[in-house]
């Protein structure tokens, strides 16, 4: 990929600045585009890694908290495993630093790591609030903040965030998770305005319920009749399609955009129906 000169007003993080002995050595770019995929030890992230690997020609960097599972996925995909806990902003910085050391840059960031918590908001422990916001929202922003300057300098790259229908319409007893995913969508929209005119793309893939360990880990099984859980491979296909065809927003399955659009057109009626039937 061609390298563009730095923007005159590009912000620089402290960790971007050379130290007293110069910048840390970076790997030379191989020519293959580099994709950094978070949450890749299971579920959607693992399916995305498998999908990218099937396309060929990518250098894949996979992140997850479970090193044993992550190593298995990385071996299967011919990828590099970069285990790290993204609930801490310092972990986000360490992940990007390791990615730059290994690959020399990141062309595509797929922010797929996520956790949930189900139950009445008044019963939610404060620590659980902090953890959901840290992983589902703050980590997305911290990772983006660290990879974006280099992407902007090269004037080419793609940021893809895995959202949720919960962020588009709100879901009962998933208030914090819904709020985090709604904020991710707004964050993506704002970035699109900032990056307009560049060759940097921002996408959000919005799945409904997905058949992954997510529900087990949040402590409550999925009990709604609709939407029915879909296979994570369908979300991975949507992620690939969004990157390959530069789509800004993709709902999975596609019909889920209907309630989201309906809520925007007739919010009062939508809330009455949702309160009655949710």
Automatic annotation (TrEMBL):
It comes from the Bacteria. Coiled coil: none annotated. Signal peptide: none annotated. Pfam families: adh_short. Keywords: Oxidoreductase. The keyword Oxidoreductase applies. This is SDR family NAD(P)-dependent oxidoreductase. It comes from Streptomyces ochraceiscleroticus. The lineage of its organism: Bacteria, Bacillati, Actinomycetota, Actinomycetes, Kitasatosporales.
């Amino acid at each position: 990929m061609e390298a563009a000169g730095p923007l005159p007003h590009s912000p620089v993080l402290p960790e971007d600045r050379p130290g007293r002995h110069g910048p840390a050595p970076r790997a030379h770019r191989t020519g293959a585009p580099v994709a950094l995929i978070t949450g890749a030890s299971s579920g959607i992230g693992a399916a995305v890694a498998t999908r990218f690997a099937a396309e060929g020609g990518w250098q894949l960097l996979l992140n997850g908290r479970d090193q044993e599972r992550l190593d298995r996925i990385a071996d299967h995909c011919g990828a590099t495993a970069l285990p790290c806990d993204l609930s801490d902003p310092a972990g986000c910085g360490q992940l990007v630093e390791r990615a730059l050391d290994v690959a020399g840059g990141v062309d595509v960031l797929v922010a797929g790591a996520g956790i949930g918590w189900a139950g009445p908001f008044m019963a939610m422990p404060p620590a659980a609030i902090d953890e959901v916001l840290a992983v589902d929202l703050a980590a997305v922003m911290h990772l983006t903040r660290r990879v974006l300057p280099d992407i902007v300098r090269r004037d080419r790259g793609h940021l893809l965030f895995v959202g949720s229908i919960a962020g588009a319409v709100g879901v009962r007893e998933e208030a914090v998770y819904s709020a985090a995913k709604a904020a991710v969508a707004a964050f993506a929209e704002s970035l699109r305005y900032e990056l307009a005119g560049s060759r940097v793309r921002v996408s959000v893939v919005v799945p409904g319920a997905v058949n992954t360990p997510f529900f087990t880990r949040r402590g409550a099984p999925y009990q709604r009749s609709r939407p029915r859980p879909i296979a994570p491979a369908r979300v991975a296909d949507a992620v690939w399609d969004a990157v390959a065809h530069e789509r800004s927003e993709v709902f999975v399955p596609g019909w889920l955009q209907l309630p989201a659009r309906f809520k925007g057109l007739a919010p009062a009626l939508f809330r009455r129906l949702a309160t009655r039937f949710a």
